[in-house]
Design a protein that fits this description.
about 600 residues, alpha+beta, D-Maltodextrin-Binding Protein, domain 2, Dipeptide-binding Protein, domain 3, 2 domains, four-stranded antiparallel β-sheet, four-stranded mixed β-sheet, about 30% helix, SBP_5_dom, transport, signal
Amino acid sequence: MKKYWLLVMCLVAVFLAACSDSSDGETTEYRTVYSGEIKTLNYLKTSETNEFAVAANLVDGLIEYDEYGIVKPGLATEWSHNDDATVWTFKLRDDAQWVSHDGKKYADVVAQDFVDGLQYVLDAKNESSTAWIATVVKNGDAFYNGEVTDFSQVGIKAVDEHTLEYTLEAPTPYFLSMLNYVCFFPVNGKFLAEKGTDFGTTRENFLYNGAYILDKFEPQKERVLVKNKTYWDKDKVLIDRIRYKYNKEAATVAPELFLRGEIDGADIPTSIIDEWLNNDEKKDKVRQSQNNFYTYFYALNFDPQFDAEYEPENWKIAVNNKDFRKSLYHALDRVSAMMTLEPYNPQDMLSNTITPKNFVDVEGVDYTQLAPLANITNNDSFNKDLALQHKEKAMTALEGKATFPIKVLMPYNSGMPDWANRTQVVEQQLENLLGKDYIDIIVEAGPATGFLSEVRKPGKFALLEANWGPDYADPSTYTDPFTEGGTYNKPELAEGYTDSDGKSAYQTLVDAAKAAVNPEERYELFAKAEAFLIEEAFVIPYAVGGSGYVASKLNPFEAQYSPFGVTSEKFKGQTVLEKPMSNDEFKKALAEWEQKRAEALAEAAN
């Protein structure tokens, strides 16, 4: 999924109102506190994790995943594709319904709902943040750009009420994995037309076909999800009510609330983890987080839009110098930075590439071990000597062109204490190594709510810690955000990297990879493109997600599992434990889960 996340994710803290099964007549309730407010329920438009995380529980797509990452039927009961994976056909279930906020039936879910959803996403005037993913469909890009105006020419059609067909631009064997993302979700066209721009603004201006209905939606106060009694798979919805309470200090106060028995889950920040692990009463209540496939990196902005006081034009001159970029690339001590999240085993969380290890492989060879990416994968980018060598070259080349020290605006989300701490560490570490005569890193607290839309998207940064989660099972899910018109730091604007056809050199490499159908050739070309992106220091890879410690009564191994899309955000299938899982219990359960997952994947491949 393109899925984008800048650590504005809500902090989960859990209340257990009742541990018994709801079939016994008691209501199970799961309560959370959060600090990052959502601005819309419109899942066809947003790409922010905390927004589609809510929508994922309200609306179902064609497929979902089980706890081991195996594809399972969702609104589609079966599917097939032609020999070259350019035409995909889905048979829909006939017992799925759209209901209103009060649980009253509005309409059946039919194939046309998926057509209407995709038409909304690909209509440029709707400004969908996920439209670029949907352009995998034939003529999707042409329709979005106005080159095709008749949507019937786009590769999606309702063959009949319960049969849906996609025709794609090119062979796409991983298309099934793309359907786990919000841009391919359905919408009732009649309701959408009636609501217009009000769709998704309130719980009343929304239709539900998923496991939950939004019973209350009061921004910066509370939102409550209740079990959808008409849901086609309601027997697998084991938590009856989910209550989100707003607290602007959620990340800070949650551990204390947990200890007081007021909540049943909290992230435990690095600043207090030692005290927890060395306390007899607390140590069995905290465990490691499970790693995920989010990738974290520092983006260097080639289109600075921040205030004049931070000298954006001077930054632009500097960032267009490769030696300047390489000095930052080699100067970043990622272990020191990572210790703000994982003080005990920080090396385990580091990633030298944008695409994490173990994401995809070709004939048993991990993608990150393909040449020339393997050389980057297997070597730490932190190198003091190289950093200082590139510094001297940059200062010589930029003499009379740029003013030193270069001001480097580095904002962070003020709602995330660990991010704030890490930003301070990175500031001190880089300035100490490279010298304050060379760079002046300016740390600035950004908003806890709306950081993505107010800081990252408008380009109000020079250097920024950012992240990306995969949307489907192909390397392009990690390379696309840096292409022309992509989500990130506009590397296509870097001077000296434009080919004769007007495309950026990186774009040309990615296009060549996308044109390859054979997986071996395709992955090798993507590895070449990603290696170029990193070698030119357009981006500094940093870590994978999932680090840190939590105290929680949720069992992470009951959740639906997928490295991409919205599956992992669903509460469907989850229960609440009677007591928090200790780290020993977590490690034992993780080992068992990994073994069962390996067996499940092997069985699914046969």
